[in-house]
Amino acid sequence: MRRLAVRAGVALALTAAAIAVPAAATAAAPSIIWSACTETALLGFDCATYEVPLDHDKPGGPTTTIALSRRPADDPARRIGTIFVNPGGPGGAGRGMVRSSARIASPQVLARFDLVGFDPRGIGASDPVQCYPTDDEAVAVLDRITGVPITRAQIRETLAANWEYTEACKKNMGPLLAHMSTLNVAKDLDLLRKGAGDARLTYIGYSYGTLIGATYANLYPGRVRAIIIDGNVDPDQRTNHRLANKFGRAGGFEIALAGFLAECDKAGTACAFSGDARGKFDRLRDRLRQGPAEVPGEGTVTIDDLTGYIGQQLYNMGNFPVAAQTLQNAYDGIFGDATALRATGAGLPKAPPARGWLGDAYSFNGNDSFYAVNCADAPLPRDPALYPGFAAVFERAYPTFGRAEAFSEVGCANWPVIKEAYDGPWNRRTAQTILVVNPTYDPATRYDFAVRMTRQLGDARLLTLDGFGHASRYSACVTSWYTRYLINGEVPPAGTRCTQDILPFPAV
């Protein structure tokens, strides 16, 4: 969840041929020139910048810079090529992903591939877009936005501040504002592939990064060597029916929350919030929906705090035990026994600002670029006055997350209309089967989306992870299929399911 509502075949013979195609088969393009990274966070890795057209329809015109980082293959003599990775968002800076290589791929894969993270255009160190000159000016507007606006005053101020925020983006973002769509990111990625010397693309994309992968596959189906998309969007719904897509997203969070609460009760004493966890959570939510509550020793807790906190914790199953304890502390502090809360000092944390991982001077590029991409990619209603009605409908269906999801992109209502976007077709047959991976209790990209992604793509295979979290983790089974697919092009048999290797609430 974002603070302030402003915030995963072809035959093996064909695959082997794809792997063997020499780099010379690639159309001429400048090579990526690597050098040692100088940023503290990336010391020990290689870094580079690469120029791409600002407008791909005008390849000889102005350019914009893409920043990259690389973890070279451990066994260069047996190197296969480059794996490009994207963390999602939109607005996620990808350079830091080289630091998480051990979680992304197995040692066998890292031995044979360079792993390259890149900041998509306008993001991170790639000529970052910026809606305000300073943090203070951004905060002055963003702090007026309520993530779960309920009262008339909250709704009125949230709509007004979102309008002001978008107007500032239009004023200050510059030429990139009109060229931030996923269509352009996919075209950039093809140039980066050429710059790396690869004849076909090998790519892993998470969350929104799955839309980049699906877009690339349909723009350049013959250039797909291996694409893994993990934690999937529904590409047609996201780009053509965004309001319905946001309704579905709210439902995904509700499904994940219900799974979390059911597992909590099943775990008994291993989960601090057990004992009618569903009932307790609903009571806590409904109380905070009536207004803020004072928690002894911790101060004021709001419905924004609860919604943002639990939404964030659902992204990673490893957070579940601490999240359950935090919910119990808040429950005790509001409804009765506050001694446990004071003893642990663990109240309901406030969500941090949407700051970039590199700690740049301006902290809200991730938020600004989130809007620049989403508002370009997908049509949303242009009248802000309609959104309170949408929120009421969303909330009736999904009482915890519906209202927040309905308001979360209201800034797109007055965003400039961007014609430069890709909205299908999604069914072009690719040179290699695409591997689609998704947990069954993924909050942000619900399992239904992955099923639809698989059906919409021209050649895809779904690998199901029976488990929790946003995109796959904690599963040796999934990692094994990643390895077999990336190295040999092997896809799992239809209907393959994996499990997670740890429990949501391990016994203490």
Distance N to C terminus: 29 Å
Largest sheet: 10 strands, mixed
CATH topology value of one domain: Rossmann fold
Provide the helix percentage: 40-55%
Structural class, by secondary structure, is alpha/beta
Q: How many strand elements?
A: 12
Tell me, briefly, the overall form: globular
By DSSP (H or I, 4+ residues per run), the number of helices equals 18
The CATH architecture of one domain is 3-Layer(aba) Sandwich
Strand order of the largest sheet: 1-2-3-5-4-6-7-10-11-12
The Rg value, from CA coordinates, equals 23 Å
What is the element string, with H for helices and E for strands? Answer: HEEEEHHEHHHEHEHHHEEHHHHHHEHEHE
Explained architecture:
- By secondary structure, the chain is an alpha/beta fold.
- It has a domain of 247 residues: Rossmann fold, CATH 3.40.50.1820.
- Helix content is 41%, strand content 14%.
- It is built from 18 helices and twelve strands.
- The strands form two sheets. The protein has a ten-stranded mixed beta sheet with strand order 1-2-3-5-4-6-7-10-11-12, sandwiched between helices. The protein has a two-stranded antiparallel ribbon with strand order 8-9.
- Helix 6 crosses helix 7.
- The protein is globular.
- The N terminus is likely disordered.
